[in-house]
Amino acid sequence: MKIDQTLEITIPQELSGFRLDQALAEMCPEYSRSRLKTWVISGDIRVDGEILRPKDKVKSGELVLLNPVADTSSEVKAESIELNIVYEDESLLVVNKPAGLVVHPAVGNWNGTLQNALLHHDASLEGLPRAGLVHRIDKDTSGLLMVARTLTAHKDLVEQLQARAFEREYLAVVRGYMTAGGSVDKPLARHPTDRKKYAVRGGGKQAITHYRVDTRFAKHTLLKVKLETGRTHQIRVHMSHISHPIVGDQVYGGRFKMMANASELLSDTLRAFKRQALHAARLGVIHPESGEAIAWDCPLPDDMKNLVKVLGQETPVQ
């Protein structure tokens, strides 16, 4: 199905002389190489009005017109799933994702995802990569996510994300009493033995996390965490690396150990908290149409709010 949107891209000087398929892969990383090649062959991508072959060379200044086609071979079905929409206009929308909701289909979760819900909310998102989702957060992390509604907005937001222009602040409850904030600048890569996990490893991708103390408890701390980069599991791995894992993290939290002299209420609350206490609380971008800086804030969900309340009741704030 053709989507009534056209993306215009000018070949930059650094890609002059590249094959068309190579240049497209560099300029449109949000689409797979195979999908781009299919569109070139079908004539849905034209260069200065001409249909070229994937191997044809391109020149600086040439205008590429991309008319996307929904990929029906791997179509994600629309599903009626409730969405908590924080903001919406013609270019983008912002949703508050609850913990437990997978962002997009993958092995083990082909249905019931945020992407399925977005397609039900707006069928035109079918023509955008992953229904317009620009970034993602883990299944058991709650909070704000940005969704583009047009190809132009998607391209702009992806470029902002790649340029580290997004403002992303999280709230996290970590184990241990922290006296001050700081930064973690440690590269991340796949874990050497468990491919579902990530670890701090030399030769990995650069990852930078900044954190500051919001509230101190006797043996826990509520942090405000800002991402400079956005690697998979970044905050969770970095906090574990500095020996302050996030409360409830079943993957990076290590063996559960109850704090000494904990009351029955605190003990029960900590044992029952089975997801990482991590919430995407603030999201800011430059609006792709107006050019204005715009940001949204999202309060803690009930489970984290209750966790913080119990920690505050049980242990005096320092």
Structure notes:
The protein has helices spanning 20-27, 33-42, 114-121, 151-162, 234-241, 264-272, 302-314, and strands at 7-10, 45-47, 63-66, 85-88, 92-97, 142-148, 167-175, 182-185, 188-190, 198-200, 208-216, 220-227, 278-286, 293-297. Helix 1 packs across helix 2. The protein folds into three domains: 7-66, RNA-binding S4 domain (Structural Genomics Hypothetical 15.5 Kd Protein In mrcA-pckA Intergenic Region, Chain A), CATH 3.10.290; 76-162, Pseudouridine synthase (2-Layer Sandwich); 167-314, 2-Layer Sandwich (Pseudouridine synthase), CATH 3.30.2350.10. The chain has 318 residues and is α+β, with helices and mostly antiparallel strands. The chain starts with 6 loop residues before the first strand and ends with a helix. The chain is elongated. Strands 4, 5, 6, 7, 8, 11, 12, 13 and 14 form a nine-stranded mixed sheet that branches.
The low-confidence parts are none
CATH uppermost class of the largest domain: Alpha Beta
Order of helices and strands: EHHEEEEHEHEEEEEEHHEEH
Q: Which class best fits the helix and strand makeup?
A: alpha+beta
Q: Choose one word for the global shape.
A: elongated
